[in-house]
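Why show two proteins at once? Because comparison is the fastest way to build intuition. When a single record is shown, students tend to memorize it. When two are placed side by side, the eye starts asking what differs. So, the first record is below.
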Amino acid sequence: MLPSPWPMVGDMLQPPWNARVYRNRHGRGTRTPMFGIRMPRYRTRTGMFDDMVAAQIRRLNDAWPELIRPLQFAVEDVPPSDPVPWQTEPNMTSQCFPASHGIPARVVLYRLPMQTEAPTKLELQLAIRDEVVSRVAELYGRRPEEIDPDWGM
């Protein structure tokens, strides 16, 4: 098994931009990023999408900790190519899976369809917010407006 290119911290893999120690290519000295971490090209589109999803989950967790804590959230690049037979209209931007047989309920967002539908960063943030809120509401059998009053605006 090949080692992961990302350093391990506890049980979770840390992306390279969150790693604390950088080494140069010979392993002797410390290595700093090529350009500042606040520069626009430092982050990839994938990393920015993950950060936007995490921000929405934190925001909802502050308001509804008893609803958000038992859920698992995931981001995948594209939806599966073969939808389940009982889905008449599959949603290509997100999907939720209810809890069953010891597996917690899950919300999965699909990055590429959401990025193609929302051309600007603000529209993408709003689309992520609406998808997360609507999927959480679907799992709990509530209206999205109960979870987030700003939903759909």
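Second record. Ask yourself what differs from the first in the token line.
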Amino acid sequence: MRCLRLIALLPLVACLGGCNFVVLAPTGDIAAQQRDLLVVSTLLMLLIIIPVMALTAFFAWKYRASNTDAPYEPEWSHSTQMELVIWSAPLLIIICLGALTWMGTHLLDPYRPLDRISADTAVPAEMTPLDVEVVALDWKWLFIYPEQGIATVNDLAAPVGRPIRFRITSSSVMNAFYVPTLAGMIYAMPGMHTELHAIANSPVESRGFSANYSGAGFSGMFFRFRGLPEADFDAWVAQAKQAPDALTRAAYLELEKPSQNVPARQYSAVDPALFDAILNMCVEDGKMCMSEMMAIDAKGGMGIESAAANTLPLTYDKHSRRGTVLGGAPSYVAGVCTPEEASRLLTLSSAARARAPVSDLAPVLGAGLPVPGLSATGLPAAGASALSPISLPASEALPGPRRPSNS
């Protein structure tokens, strides 16, 4: 019977043979340090867990009801020696874990540039990191190589022994960029950019993925990562430069549309300002960039009158504007007044409306600073055609404060 039980366990052993302990077999120095931190933390934890489990079994066996030789002390209440053991051992482990955590938090900070290639090799002063701009799309990964002038989809390569600096963002929802053999996980968020520094110390081909659920195509959101010798990496770049397509803004807007299980793809050229446009959510022509909007706000804003020119909404409504089912309908500023004031305006005579000065109705679009109507100091610029409120005769003036009304 015992032999049959052992045979029944063989399929479980065979299943364990298919496990890939990729986190415990890193090929990059950062991932190796994270592995060491994980192993040391586990061993420190086991210093408490193993003795507790062993003593639990020992006490249950020694003080069993059938063992009449075991001492019986129903009035026992305190032991100084036991108190010292119970409190000192966990305290020492907490101190060790705290020291490891503090060092790991600073030395393995993803924003911290690398100062070593491996444990015994420092980064040469003349070596610059390879810049890779990463964009999490639905449901694929876009990699832009600004130095090489190429871009790839679901295909990441880097030369062995050269530090890599990732700048990471997302086009729509939050994802998590993770290559277990290379470095730790870091989030990709729309309108923000995170950084990750890493290095591949030996040739490797592994898989990266998103570690944060992001919708229907999440299960297929994988990409291939390869650490290549310098010559092979140069050949890979040369191959990408032979690709038939270039990643223009129009091509990116097409690529950005949700799609699943996308095969690897290369682009021979890329718009050099594309990543910053994605980060600032202004890839579309005429869309105001977040950086421009923040610069306007830093100068004090353009005033309530700027809304009168049907400025495109600065909420990020790209899905509804591109014809998908996500998001609400497009909205525009209909007037700088309350609904009651708008109704009152409609009842005015045509002669009164004709006497009102016409404002500059040119759309306020993100065409770069300086902003129309503002000087570098934030004051109205000389000769600027700032939008002005409508003025009416005193007999037909509208009561109450004026504020935007969206429709």
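One difference worth noting in the second protein: Residues 29-62 form the longest helix (34 residues).
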